[in-house]
Amino acid sequence: MENTSSLNITNTISQKESGEMGLIKMILEDIRCAIQRDPAARNWFEVLFNYAGLHAIWLYRVNHWLWTHKIYFPARLFSQIARWLTGIEIHPGAVIGRRFFIDHGMGVVIGETAEVGNDVTLYHGVTLGGVSLEKGKRHPTLGDNVVVGAGAKVLGAIEIGTGSRIGANAVVVKPVPPESVVVGIPGQIVKRSEKRTADQPDLHHDRLPDTLGQTLQQVVARLNQLEEQMHVHQNGQIEPDPEGYWTGSDFSI
Which of 27, 56, 73, 95 is the most buried (most CB within 10 A)? Predict the structure, then answer.
């Protein structure tokens, strides 16, 4: 896994490159990124005026420049204005790389010491939050090409490895190795058996492992083996029907 210092260097370079490439070129790069990652985007004009996630990141770039030049109060003030306008809260002290895309965006919160690599995608309701009242590093570090699904919470000074995918509504509180998938509460880490070769972000939210279901299947299989060894007859199978639905008595509430 990339260590924090190496990712800090990567992000610092990204910020420098963003400043050197010019505002117009950066805006064009972000628009191109949005069109590539959102199939609902039809043209550049529509993306430029209607994508709150892009507006939030552009306003953040200005606020971050103020923050790094120790103009703290205006940076915080303008970040609050950006929050009112977009529904996205990004602390100006956060460090965010290039081609960062927030899809839909409402309810996204990114804390002060969060660090985000290049080509990262967040969906609505994501929180990159802290779990400590102490000063210093207390928010997550995301590597390059990370995708965080809707409603997911990544909490604490932990690292999310390059190329990983956080499932919707997962709560991640421990470090994640590169090329992993995280699901559940608390987040269960599943390492990919093979590294992805595609350059595009992995946006297939339908391809998430069922860690709890697999565990229960193993427990049931082991129980069946023990019952066979003990010559105990089971009263019916505990499994869903062919369509994947569970059946039973009245479950009205």
Answer: 56
